[in-house]
Design a protein that fits this description.
By secondary structure, the chain is α+β, with helices and mostly antiparallel strands. The chain has helices at 35-48, 69-78, 109-121, 175-192, 205-213, 255-263, 283-293, 325-334, and strands spanning 16-18, 21-26, 32-33, 52-55, 61-63, 93-95, 134-137, 150-156, 159-164, 167-173, 233-236, 242-247, 252-254, 268-270, 275-281, 309-311, 338-339, 348-349, 356-357, 382-384, 391-392, 395-398, 412-417, 420-423. The structure holds iron/sulfur cluster.
């Protein structure tokens, strides 16, 4: 596939003109925010934006309705959130949020910093499309299935397999080599690109980049699938401290809630599931944090229906949207129409319909990581009024057929049409 236009991913220096006003996207490599950085974002959202921080599916953040782009740039630069003007949009780096703290085979956050530095040090890599995604998985398999372009996945504490276009190449490297190989792969992408935004869009792109790396692949290949293991609730770290995983309703974090989180003065990791992890807490402070933040709307209950739902911007943020999708999701969750799937249930009878539907999707996941069965209750491909939509399991609501922000893996689509929502 050859693109005829450059990618239009927004940044801080190049705002997207959304229907509700200018939108800025701030890259947060590895999702890691220091408390002062989160405080800066919260203040900016309050003073210059619409009062919320949007979390993205790449662990970045967005501010909507930005009123003063120059002032935003100044504040983000001072906070270390805009370390490069030339490379700001290419710093799309997702890493296992719990790496180095709980489970996993390797600490990848140090590699995130090195990769970010390496990208910014190479002038040519400023030409990478803003869509290119780097992934660093500590071996638990939480981010390698996100469909990145260039990545590494720990197979041992000091051994990583190289991923290209979301697939295992069989090339194994040490931790010391991992960043250099990813940087070389990024150059390889540019060598082959004739305007494509993603590596998989280039014919045999992954194979050709792997060959250009000049490394001999082994015969073993990992099967990688999308997972939905959102870290939620009380997570005891390997060192005895506590991480708190918190869900954020539709990924929209109110600025005042973000201020409270920043005041805890602990590192925060934004996850690609639009949630966050507050790390390195002692037990007693962790209990107090839950007591304060749960009433403010953060989700510490892994059984919350909010964790099953994602949505695009919808109205008023997107001019293409047929309706206010997020308001409809709010109503669906509040009225109990977002259903928790029953374990081991093959399918449920469709309410108001005339057929039984099992919408499970092939995920190519190893059996031990298989997602719970995921079954819609509404008729597949039926169109129903917003207040009649009842769906069980993971679901993504969209204001039009483009389905922006749809997560990978087994997800039921709920898509607005002029006559209601189409489910299926
Ligand atoms: S899915 Fe459609 S309505 Fe929703 S944000 Fe994308 S273009 Fe807009």
């Amino acid at each position: 596939m050859t693109r005829t236009t450059p990618d239009s991913c927004p940044g801080v220096l190049r705002l997207h003109q959304a229907a509700d006003g200018p939108l800025a996207r701030v890259r947060v490599p590895g999702g890691r925010l220091e408390p002062a950085q989160l405080h800066t974002l919260a203040e900016a959202a309050h003073d210059l934006g619409d009062g919320s921080i949007e979390l993205t599916s790449r662990g970045n953040v967005q501010l909507r309705r930005v009123r003063d782009a120059a002032e935003l740039t100044t504040r983000l630069e001072a906070a270390g959130l805009l370390p490069s003007h030339t490379h700001e949009r290419v710093r799309n780096i997702v890493a296992s949020p719990l790496a180095g703290r709980l489970g996993g085979r390797a600490e990848v956050h140090v590699l995130v910093s090195a990769l970010d530095t390496g990208l910014r040090a190479a002038p040519r890599l400023a030409e990478l499309p803003g869509r290119v995604l780097f992934t660093l998985d500590d071996g638990r398999g939480d981010v390698s299935g996100l469909g990145g372009d260039i990545g590494v996945h720990a197979v041992e504490a000091d051994a990583f397999t190289v991923l290209l276009a979301g697939r295992d190449t069989g090339i194994r490297v040490s931790a010391n080599e991992a960043v250099d190989v990813m940087i070389a792969a990024a150059h390889g992408f540019l060598d082959l690109s004739s305007g494509q935004w993603r590596l998989h869009e280039i014919e045999d792109g992954a194979e050709r980049v792997a060959e250009a790396l000049g490394l001999t692949p082994g015969t073993d290949r990992l099967e990688l699938g999308a997972t939905h293991d959102i870290p939620i609730g009380w997570l005891t770290q390997d060192n005895g401290l506590v991480s708190l995983g918190a869900g954020v309703r539709l990924g929209s974090l109110p600025a005042n809630t973000a201020e409270f989180i920043a005041a805890i003065e602990r590192p925060v990791f934004l996850t690609p599931w639009r949630s966050l992890v507050i790390a390195d807490l002692e037990e007693w402070p962790a209990e107090q944090v839950v007591r304060v933040l749960a009433p403010m709307g953060l989700i510490f209950d892994a059984e919350s229906p909010w964790l099953l739902v994602s949505a695009c911007a919808g109205q008023p943020g997107c001019a293409k949207s047929i309706t206010d999708v997020r308001a409809d999701v709010d109503a669906a969750v509040d009225s109990g129409r977002v259903r928790i799937p029953r374990q081991n249930t093959e399918a449920e009878t469709i309410s108001g319909g005339n057929a039984t539907v099992d919408s499970r999707v092939e995920t190519h996941e190893p059996a031990e990581r298989a997602l719970p069965h995921h079954v819609p209750v509404a008729t597949i491909n039926s169109v129903v009024a917003a207040d009649q939509v009842v769906v069980s399991g993971r679901q993504h609501w969209s204001g039009c057929d483009r389905r922006c922000g749809r997560p990978r893996g087994a997800v039921t689509d709920v898509v607005a049409t002029p006559h209601g929502y189409r489910v299926g």
